[in-house]
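Morning - pyridoxal-5'-phosphate inputs below, output right after.
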Amino acid sequence: MAIKTIIEPFRIKAVEPIRMTTPAERQAKIREAFYNVFLLHADDVLIDLLTDSGTGAMSSEQWAAVMRGDESYAGSRSYYRFEQSVKRLFPFKHIIPTHQGRAAERILFSVMCRPGHIVPNNAHFDTTRANIEYRGARAVDLPCRESHETGAPHPFKGNMDLEALERLLAAEGRAAVPLVLLTITNNSGGGQPVAMANVRQVSEICHRYGVPLYIDACRFAENAYFIKQREPGYENRSVAEIAQEFLSYADGCTMSAKKDGLANIGGFLATNDEDLSRQEKDLLILTEGYPTYGGLAGRDLEAIATGLEEVVHEDYLQYRIVSTEYLGRHISGEGVPIVQPPGGHAIYIDAAAFLPHVEPLRYPGIALAVEFYLEAGIRAVEIGSVMFGQHDRESGEETPAEHELLRLAIPRRVYTQSHIDYVVEAILEVWKRRERIGGYRITYQAPFLRHFTARFEPLGS
Ligand SMILES: Cc1ncc(COP(=O)(O)O)c(C=O)c1O
């Protein structure tokens, strides 16, 4: 009989202690952090599920590659190894390294967007939206209909709404839409995958209107694995082949190597357009660095080159997807409302359904983030009205986001199953006392990306 238990497909070679705190200490720490978990010291967090970005553990092969890093300013051997590793999966002509994903976004939108432009996406993530808006352009989300209902399972809830894209392009035309983006997997909408058929159709529509398609490829390997599991016709294709196919429908991509690059820093911008690549490299030199390092050390380029080889291993991806699902299944089985089905890199709790008595503009996602920290030292992030609500600075008027979510993002190769069992137990304790949890008000906010630095106060205090 085959063994059914899916294990972490690695042994642990180096360990990093985590510090236990008492409930009284956590009360003091969260108050000092103005109830914003971004403002906590990481040493005061026990299980850090704030993000899966740059928080993964590197392999022994990656650490060995770090030692081989060539720190030459121009023409570094590590750049050529990085470029070769990227091109094995990403079939684009020009590969431009950047220090992380948002630097690739800033360069791309600086070159392609003007005030008044519109950039559609299945769902923009925070930095993508902010970089587009910073250029004076408008970021428009076109998620598929199935994504609106958080609790309803659908295999490809990350898909773009094809009819809405067609309508937008027919109404606005090539002159107003410099590019279309597709975020794979869809981070703001639940870590949900995009189907191969959807990428193909989005590409066909874009090209019919003469508009280039770019993929935000942060979690390309997780997306490819979901296609292999869920889309008929792909069960016998390798994850690498699947990724190559969906990337081949695009004209370029942005990538944060802090996710499926399995690295702690880095990213890149890729394009097939020679003229654009020249303009992008000129900007890169101005703010990031020479095009053979782009703001990274040679050793970082080596870590990414090796990470991209490891991330498409199917043992790794099976463990990755199954362990995220394990958390989702164990809390939803006890009634905790989550975005269904579980995402690839994170579980998204529906905070509005968890705390129905806390109105959206009393920030139920923030309230839950505070409670998980107080209960057990767990850090998670609100993806709701603080991150994505509209707020008019002049009038103070606020419009809530479509969903109030709390994301528990799982760092890659970092936590074991017993860490996750601890998280499950803590969440269920908070679930039991949910009726006694109240909302928050904002006492300070920055003009954009306010969630990173906002300060809060519990209502009634
Ligand atoms: C979908 C998506 N796009 C872009 C980014 C930005 O990448 P970085 O944090 O490397 O700047 C992120 C980061 O979380 C992301 O999830």
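Note: The longest helix spans residues 314-332.

O.
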